[in-house]
Design goal:
homodimer; alpha+beta; Dna Ligase, domain 1; DNA-binding
Chain lengths: ~150, ~150
DNA sequence: CTTGTATGTGCAAATATTTGCAGTTCCAAG
DNA sequence: CTTGGAACTGCAAATATTTGCACATACAAG
């Protein structure tokens, strides 16, 4: 169900207005699928509605994040990416050398994580953790480099 | 041992030049302690050497990160922070609502994390993970808000 | 001590993102 | 259907960070 109709309901019932810009942006995020940048969303939206502004895209994405409809994913030195929250809960392994991003299932990591930080009264976002480190290839290179 | 002499040795032996700017920046990071922003580093450095440029600070901090001498810590919507890597290994709990950052000991999280992602051939940065979520206070507020 | 040159720096412009503000629009109430 | 006002938007400027480039300098070799 990659239809964004339910999402627009969430916006309305949270007391926010349903503007054409928001609908276009929702459609873009749902249609494009996977990870998208604000710039990509804008490009898609402008095909239907040329006068939408980048700042509106950012503001709307931020709104969708706060409503839990999409998730923000930011890695150092590259534009933020967003994805619909209906995707399977998962975490990201971000390679600090090559920048590659790999997805891993949320479980059992989330459960372990939750238990460990619970002692601090903290409620982690269990469904979307960015783990930085080295992927297998870069780790191998690093070792041979040092030797 | 908050002396940065060893750090300058690391720079030299990694084949990088030991410029006055780099020494000033090292001193700033070690002297200021805790989490510092590029702007704070610049302010401190300029007390001794007024013509150092912000971009040099960024480039140097980046260099120090790649040498493992300091760690970068970035949270959405706020300037990056850096800290000397000699501090106790720990993770950060970042509250998505109030932005507060709390530190938790690296263990036992790091060990668990390493075991879980090992299956993907991934080598995580075990000493510095940013866990996003809600702190106790904001979580309580969120709940009362919904009710 | 001099010198060549790769490395590093300052500056200014580019990139990514946020924000202030004045004008526009959605939509609840009449 | 009209309308008032809070919510929203576009625009331009601010903020955080990176990058291209020409000039400067650390330092290895002579």
């Amino acid at each position: 169900m990659s239809c964004y109709h339910q999402a627009s309901e969430v916006i309305r019932s949270a007391g926010y207005r349903l503007t054409p810009q928001r609908l276009f942006i929702l459609e873009a995020v749902y249609h494009l699928g996977g990870h998208v940048t604000a710039e990509q969303v804008l490009a898609y939206v402008q095909k239907s509605s040329p006068y939408v502004d980048l700042s509106t895209v950012y503001r709307t994405l931020e709104l969708l994040v706060s409503l839990g409809l999409i998730r923000r994913f930011s890695a150092p030195n590259r534009p933020n990416e967003y994805e619909v929250a209906t995707a399977e809960p998962h975490h990201h392994l971000v390679c600090l050398r090559c920048g590659r991003v790999e997805a891993v299932p949320a479980e059992p990591l989330s459960t372990v994580l939750r238990e460990i930080v619970a002692a601090h009264g903290f409620t982690p976002d269990e469904t979307h953790l960015a783990i930085h480190g080295l992927c297998a290839e870069c780790h191998a290179q690093e070792r041979s480099h040092e030797a």
